Amino acid sequence: MRVLKTVFDFYINSSIHVALAIVAMTCVTYLEFNVSIDSNLLCFVGFASITGYNFVKYFGLAKFHHRSLSNKLKAIQVFSLLCFLAMCFFALRLNTASLIAILIFGAVTFLYAIPLLPNRIFVDKKKKLRSISGLKIYIIALVWSGVTVCLPLINNEFEIFDDVIISAVQRFIFVVLLMLPFEIRDLNYDSLKLSTIPQRIGVRSTKVAGLLLSLVLVSLEYFKNNIHINHLLSLIGIVLVSVLFLKFSTQQQGKYYSAFWVESLPIFWLLVLLVLS
How many domains does the chain divide into? Predict the structure, then answer.
């Protein structure tokens, strides 16, 4: 059991799980717009997600405590390096337009972790984009929506029309909805200067806001030119489950409540869509 727990914790802590969630949402886009799946793009998204997330999570630790890193963190570093090399390999198999989009999303991720912007726009001593008051959740949602909706379509030279833009907005809202349980969980640890949504309006109001966002998310489907019943049903189902997870979120939630179960929702979404299809 101890070995299984160690492997499972590595699976979570090394960002493999969140990477699979992002890959799953990319597949949802392929199915929604009936575009042929590009395995090179999916592999790139998976390895890039692991690289990016681990870079953001562990950059500070590696920078300031590299001599005293635990064996677990060193293993994640080596794993991240291998994923970075794999990411570069698959990036070379993508078209020029995709690479330009990747550079844009990569720059946002880089600024999210590295202190480069002027001091006057930060709210505390940490000079990172993520430290700007209230911006963290929206940066993550922006990058996720761009990577999982726009990037696969750009790579397939698919026309970016109204329905695509609406789907990108829906994906942005969906990611914000998924992030709320994390922000509730981290209330006891986040600096007050980060001004997260629960810090600004409280846990109860955050859950109400999540419910309103879910209604907006589903309602946007009505404005699409082409409405696919399978996608609509799967969307409604996964949004309902997301709202339930948000409803039962607390500051004292279990270790894997958000880190595994909430982040599994995009994978469940893909599975439901495949069953309905």
Answer: 1
Q: What is the pLDDT of residues 26-54, one digit of tens each?
A: 999 999 999 999 999 999 999 999 999 99
pLDDT in tens, 61-85: 554 445 545 778 888 989 999 999 9
Joined tokens for residue 99: 């690479």
Q: How far does Cα 170 stand from its chain's mean position?
A: 14
Question: What percentage of the chain exceeds 70 in pLDDT?
Answer: 86
From the list 205, 158, 161, 206, the residue with the least C-alpha distance to 180 is 206
Could you tell me if 171 and 145 are in contact, meaning their C-beta atoms sit under 8 angstroms apart?
yes
Cβ atoms of 146 and 168 closer than 8 Å: yes
Tell me if residue 226 falls in helix, strand or coil. coil
Contacts of 214 (CB under 8 A, 6+ apart): 177, 239, 240, 242, 243
Contacts 24+ apart (CB under 8 A), 221-226: 221/166, 221/170, 223/162, 223/166, 224/162, 224/163, 224/166, 224/167, 225/161, 225/162, 225/163, 226/163
Structural domain harbouring 238: 2-276
Q: C-alpha angle 17/21/25, rounded to 5°?
A: 170
Cβ atoms of 45 and 147 closer than 8 Å: yes
**Closest of 38, 42, 53, 41 to residue 84, by C-alpha:** 53
pTM exceeding the 0.85 threshold for the entire prediction: yes
Tell whether the model's pLDDT for residue 187 goes beyond 90. no
The 10s digit of each residue's pLDDT in 134-166 is 677 888 899 999 999 999 999 999 988 899 999
